[in-house]
Specification:
By secondary structure, the chain is α/β, with parallel strands linked by helices. The chain contains eight helices and twelve strands.
Length: 229
């Protein structure tokens, strides 16, 4: 799942960015409203959730909300702010925010609110994915393989391996290009000319082969990859 984080306080932004990545989210972090709008104007459909600070250089969080909703986007947005008056909360919600979190806050509460937004968002994909004996729990962020004896074997995956497997399993039997994978799995600043996708696919294949899921991901030469269902 990809999140746009818009926060201009460096320490808080780093803490949120680190926490989200530990939870296997893909994060694009913008530190002012104008930069955030460049992300949203070009690729808002690629995001699952957004987190906006209210007070930002350039466009404010409220202005971002107005522009986003003018595009008829239903992207769930959590608003962060030090403003705790009732009228401020009402203004944020009326502008199009889906939830409101007052600073200071704990990271556990932030994650809980994001999970709640995911559950009620019409954009969210199914929480359980399965191809053959391979199952992915997107809610708990776990992958497992059903062995012949009927037991589930947990597959230990890194954040990127999980995100890559999730993307493949959401597009079974479809050819996905290297560029599509890079745009969905890596931050916008990733080097478009590196072999990071091929390297990550190799690592994921090894993990899958180690539990008996060989040849699930095939290479379509000159194009990309396909996961066979």
């Amino acid at each position: 799942m990809r999140i746009l984080l818009v926060e201009d306080e460096p320490d808080l932004g780093k803490a949120i960015d680190r926490t989200l990545k530990q939870e296997k989210y893909i994060v694009d972090w913008a530190q002012d409203g104008n930069e955030a709008w460049e992300y949203l104007d070009n690729q808002w459909t690629q995001y699952t959730l957004a987190i906006f600070d209210w007070l930002l250089p350039g466009l404010s969080g409220i202005q971002l909300l107005h522009k986003l909703r003018a595009k008829h986007s239903f992207l769930p947005v959590l608003m962060l702010t030090a403003k705790d008056r009732m009228e401020d909360k009402v203004a944020g919600l009326d502008a199009g925010a889906d939830d409101y979190l007052v600073k200071p806050f704990g990271m556990e509460e932030l994650l809980a609110r994001l999970r709640a937004l995911q559950r009620r968002s019409p954009q969210i994909q199914p929480q359980q994915l399965q191809i053959g004996n391979l199952a992915l729990d997107c809610g708990n962020r776990t992958a497992c393989h059903l062995n012949q004896n009927g037991t589930n074997q947990i597959i230990s995956l890194t954040n990127k391996e999980f995100q890559l497997l999730e993307y493949f399993m959401k597009h079974p039997n479809q050819i996905v290009t290297t560029d599509q994978i890079r745009n969905q799995i890596w931050e916008a600043s990733a080097d478009a000319f590196s072999n990071v996708v091929a390297a990550q696919v190799r690592l994921l294949r090894r993990k899958l082969e180690s539990v008996g899921c060989a040849n699930l991901i095939e290479t379509v030469h000159g194009v990309g990859y396909r996961m066979r269902n």
